[in-house]
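Can anyone check this?
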Amino acid sequence: METCVTYRIATEQDLDRIIAMLADDSLGSKRERYENPLPASYKLAFEAIASDPNNELVVACINDKIMGVIQITFTPYLTHQGGWRASLEGVRISSSYRGKGIGTKLIKWAINRAEERGCHLVQLTTDKERPDALKFYESLGFHNTHEGLKLKL
């Protein structure tokens, strides 16, 4: 039986569920602070995302229950003749729904959303400590074409 997944822009009321999902794995549990109440920094970040027309925080739902989240940032570039790119970040599926195709549907939805916004490229990064995530993204057609570097501040 096909699972019907719906997508919508996240609201502030979704923040608790989103942070719970982000904290619910070996890497996320080290960097997120899922506590009650949530640290104010999460609300401030949510407000910045929600007020930016080039950012979309989207939740994936089954029967109105949030099962996944993704942040899509649309960025104009001078390269590629002034084209737009979509960057996918903070992708997470509820641990009870992992391996059931929800992540595939969410990424394909995000790719379609990028096309709707006129993007010529979709890009993402995944932590090197997530080899299964890398294989997952490659199975969806993503290619390891660049070396990514980060500087923690």
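Reply from J.R.: I decoded it. The mean pLDDT is 94.
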